Write the structure tokens for this entry.
Amino acid sequence: MTKDKEKKMVDRINELYHKKKAEGLTAEEEKEREKLHQEFIKNFRASFKQDVENLVILDKDGKEITSEKAKAIQRKKALRKN
């Protein structure tokens, strides 16, 4: 998802949130709000998972201490050669 599309989604979620607090939402707006919220959460989780899978952890001496599970995922995704 592009940053522009994500910003538009967040802006619309916020708009619906404020309208809900001020005057309430129609059934159609509530469905839209729920759909946007679910899509946002799905995208957030996918992005967070990718970030975590790409992490390389180093100790204070600069030695890599990334878990073997993470290394295996990185190898599978061709993010790691060793």
About this structure: The CA atoms of residues 16 and 22 lie 10 Å apart. Helices lie at 3-22, 27-53, 68-76. The chain is about 70% helix and 0% strand. The chain has a mean pLDDT of 94.
